[in-house]
Specification:
single chain; about 675 residues; alpha/beta; four-stranded mixed sheet
């Protein structure tokens, strides 16, 4: 946006000649957008041939509940809603349940007739959840690190169609805020460049876990990400969403310890082998000064926010700080910036500690119970003692691509919670995946739950899902999805993310690990899953022109091969331990060939190609500005993660079964291991 670019210049980020191609791409002259025009713009982008087939009406909420309706009148579909997100959620419900269509992170099926069908009756749904939240901090690095505006525009339309009204927006563009703050505090440019990380790692920077990793970044990247963030939050507001921006909770560069010796600035230890940023004690008067600079600079760039995220001591950290006073001071700084602001905190690994919340205003907080599908905190913490909170799921860790999701828990637990007398002040529901663009069925179910007051029958739900996902169905497809419901999306799911692929595991004979924590075990009958695969293969000829079917067939085949790989690996290990060189040669060759088979399969679907990720990373810089460095950080995230060596406890955490990564990284790694074992079997010291 032009306003954002001008403000960035005024904030001292650049001179006009520094504006990059990325920033120019994000720039546009804006016209006033009304709620109705925002809705019509989404319809025009999604189904342009039917843009005039809808009447738009805004209606009052049902008490405090957001509501949508649709019916037909005078040959048009009438969409009604109490807000832009609720009205667009109604549009999505109409497309799913009246038109047999589907919109997802992994492809759309929008085969509509020339004349849209009229609803047989009025459909009306009210949400018992005031807030529908989306995103984990990690999502901004594991999936969205290098997105351009067209990808963001599509994403924001997708969020609106799923009724999201509270999206996290706290990561993109933080480079510009910190640069402005550090310049205002007269920290040198070298301190800034050492503090700001690559976008591939900016999520953990915002959470106070590391600084500078993957950097330094170019000035054009800083300006470009500020510009695109301005456009993101502007579009969120146009679509009736409240963006959750970053709050100042005391995280500061470690270089400030020496620069401001009179202030209480604490070392906070390490996180997974990284030196954490420092912590400015919120009880110190200097905190008030820095917080005011922070909020002034952020507001100048991105406007006011009614919600600010920020978690002191996320996943550890230590400092001798009075938490009770700290919580009060952090929230006061937010309220000084905007008296209507609320502090959004993540309930994870014991945080936020009761002491931190003790003197905060309950009416100005929102707690996200992150891991609701596996480790809900609200029961253990007395419904968070009256603080407003949201039931949430993570499901995906590290952006891993395995088929997985605790569908039964998602269908039942939020309904149980909202009807539980001990729920406390439950006001929201949220999806907080570390990575997206996987498991469309699971997320489709979650996005429906804010509009349900009874758990859906999953047999019926998955049956209808298959039909709208592909625009048609057959008995074979229905049976396949019934099996998928009971296996990869079955009742026993709910551990720390999807079962891992042995292909992506760091080589070992027994219990190889694809990440520092994770399991190769499957909580379902793998023979049944293979039967679902065979049923889909048998139906493939009838779905040749359906892109969503093609994607799902690749994904199910990928999972079947990954499951088979565990057996192949076990055969190889058994042969080695038996000292049978011939059998080891046979089984190891088959195992290595299976990895390459997987690579070839995944090359047929753009969602599973590593080159897209690498190309996106390079698009944010020229060669002179650090294009190779950005690509290097993109490669590191999905392989070594942190610095190489035994201290890197996050290695392989973000593993991906992607074409190019399998053939170029995982296969050579396994082959070196196999070659060493062959040497041992032949009596030679490797």
């Amino acid at each position: 946006m032009i306003r954002v670019l001008l403000l960035s210049i005024l904030a001292g980020l650049s001179t006009p000649g520094d504006v990059s191609a990325g920033a120019q791409d994000a720039a546009e002259s804006t016209e006033e957008v009304t709620p109705e025009s925002a809705v019509r713009d989404v319809i025009g982008r999604l189904i342009p041939a039917h843009a005039d087939a809808f009447a738009i009406e805004f209606i009052p909420p049902d008490g405090q509940k957001d509501v949508f309706e649709y019916d037909g009148a005078d040959g048009r579909v009438v969409l009604r809603g109490s807000s832009v997100p609720s009205l667009l959620a109604g549009l999505n419900w109409y497309l799913k349940y009246e038109c047999n269509c589907h919109v997802s992170w992994t492809g759309d099926q929008l085969r509509l007739p020339d004349k849209l069908p009229m609803p047989a009756r009025k459909v009306r749904r009210a949400s018992p959840f005031r807030y529908r939240y989306i995103y984990n901090y990690c999502t901004f690095s594991y999936t969205m690190a290098f997105w351009n505006w067209p990808r963001w525009e599509r994403e924001l339309d997708f969020l609106a169609l799923n009724g999201i009204n509270l999206p996290l927006a706290a990561v993109v563009g933080q480079e510009a805020v910190w640069q402005a703050v550090m310049r205002r505090l007269r920290l040198g440019e070298n301190h800034i460049s050492e503090f700001v990380p690559s976008p591939a790692f900016s999520a953990w920077w915002a959470m106070g876990n590391l600084e500078g990793w993957g950097g330094p970044v170019s000035q054009s990247l800083i300006i470009g990400r500020a510009a695109i963030q301005g456009r993101i939050v502007a579009r969120m507001r146009e679509l009736g969403m409240e963006p959750v921006l970053q709050g100042f909770y005391g995280m500061v560069p470690r270089s400030m310890i020496e620069r401001f010796p009179g202030a209480k600035i604490h070392e906070t230890g390490q996180w997974c082998g990284f030196e954490r940023p420092a912590m400015l004690d919120p009880n110190d008067p200097f905190f008030v000064r820095v917080a005011k600079i922070w909020y002034d600079k952020q507001q100048a760039l991105y406007g006011d926010a009614k919600f600010y995220g920020g978690d002191p001591f996320h996943e550890g950290g230590n400092a001798d700080i009075d938490l009770t006073g700290a919580g009060k001071a952090i929230q006061k700084a937010m309220l000084d910036a905007n008296p209507d602001a609320s502090w959004v905190l993540q309930a994870w690994q014991g945080n936020p500690k009761p002491e931190l919340l003790a003197q905060t205003r309950k009416d100005r907080t929102l707690i996200l119970d992150l891991f609701g599908e596996s480790d809900p905190q609200w029961r253990k913490r007395n419904g968070f003692d009256g603080h407003p909170w949201a039931w949430c799921v993570i499901s995906n860790f590290g952006g891993n691509v395995g088929m997985y999701g605790a569908a039964e828990k998602v269908a039942i637990h939020p309904i149980e919670a909202i009807n539980d007398a001990a729920r406390g002040n439950l006001v929201g529901i949220g999806g907080l995946p570390e990575g997206t663009e996987t498991n469309a069925a699971f997320w489709d179910l979650l996005f429906e739950m804010p509009w349900r007051t009874e758990p859906p029958n999953l047999d019926t739900w998955f049956g209808r899902y298959a039909g709208r996902r592909y625009g048609k169905s057959t008995p074979g497809v229905q049976q396949a999805w019934s099996i998928l419901k009971d296996t990869v999306y079955g009742a026993r799911q709910g551990s720390a993310g999807e079962p891992q692929s042995v292909f992506c595991a760091r080589p070992a004979l027994r219990a190889p690990q694809a990440r520092a924590w994770g399991s190769l075990a499957r909580a379902y009958d793998q023979r049944e899953f293979a039967r679902a695969w065979s049923l889909l293969v048998a139906e493939a000829d009838g779905f040749k022109t359906v892109d969503t079917f093609s994607h799902d067939l690749v994904d199910v085949t990928r999972q079947a091969l990954a499951n088979l790989g565990v057996m192949y690996h076990r055969n190889m290990a058994d042969a080695f331990e038996a000292g049978d060189a011939a059998a080891f040669d046979k089984h190891s060759r088959a195992f290595l060939e299976l990895i390459l088979d997987q690579d070839q399969l995944l090359a047929t679907d753009h969602h599973f190609i590593v080159g897209n990720w690498l190309r996106e990373s390079r698009s944010w810089a020229s060669k002179e500005e650090g294009q190779d460095r950005l690509e290097s950080s993109a490669r590191a995230l999905i392989t070594t993660w942190g610095p190489r060596g035994p201290a890197s406890t996050l290695r392989d955490y973000a593993n991906r079964e992607w074409s190019g990564l399998l053939s170029g990284f995982y296969h050579p790694r396994w082959k070196r291991f196999v070659d060493e074992l062959k040497e041992r079997l032949n009596g030679r010291a490797p």
